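hiii, so i know i said id send this last week but things got crazy w the move. better late than never?? heres the sequnce for the chain we talked about at the cafe, plus the structure i predicted for it. fair warning i was half asleep when i ran it
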Amino acid sequence: MKPIIGITLGDVAGIGPEVVFKALGETSVLRECCPLVIGDIAGIRDQGSGIRVIKEVGQARFEAGAINVLDIGNELGEFKVGQVNEVTGAAAVSYIKKAVELALKGEIKAVVTAPISKEAINLAGFSYPGHTELLAELTGTEDFAMMLACPTLRVVLATTHLPLAEVPGSLTQERIITVIRLTNKALIQLGISNPKIAVAGLNPHAGEGGLFGKEEEEIIAPSVKVAREEGLNVEGPYPPDTVFRLKSDAVVVMYHDQGLIPIKLLAFEEAVNVTLGLPIIRTSPDHGTGFDIAGKNLANPASMIEAIKLAVKMVKRKA
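okay and structure toks below
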């Protein structure tokens, strides 16, 4: 039987509903899974016929031409498409909470999340910097990491949404070793035996022997040494400007843009975000809410399609 994949609508003032329903219009997606949309029916705009509104997973009927929407029932009011607001921000958080609840119960096999607005959820009173931290809290996960993947590159972040000035002080051997371990485990789950992991330095030329910074010598290199002693196939730290040219299965990077710039250069519309370390499978498209194009039927669903397909692949590997 095809796995049930829960797909949240994200911030409905953005392009979330559009990319979700465009993705579910693809035969290749429907061949691989039973999609269950999680959100508010009031937030769905002009997505065609065939929508079946349900209140619990058991009511879903996965039939040709029908899309099941598990309606959360939030009062959204007259929200404006393309504008940040706390109502749709709060609603987006409620969709994630419901999806995690269902995944932990085993009623759905994976969660795919449409984009949320960090500004909107903060306006609604939630202080999370993004999906990752919220998912970790909801699942009681202490060790987690963000992986961005495209057909030719995978990067895993040692730090995520931090001001650049705070990155050096946030890097610890414990954190880097944890991220290397999570990366190795994730790659094995994706079917890669003895994964080869490269670790990026923080400073130009990977510190140039301490001339441009001490983090490589004092923190990153010792972390790599510990991971190698555990039997992991990991090397580094490499200069950040050349590490992505190496033949590796994944690159562990030190900060957000160090990893996302190459990913978005290579595969801006196809990359997928995967949260490592959770007790559930979670993927998402690697783009934002697109408030500037929301409601204009301009959003490209390619990344959402890839996120759903990768979630299915991970479910099958886990089975």
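btw The mean pLDDT is 94. thought thatd interest u
miss u guys!!
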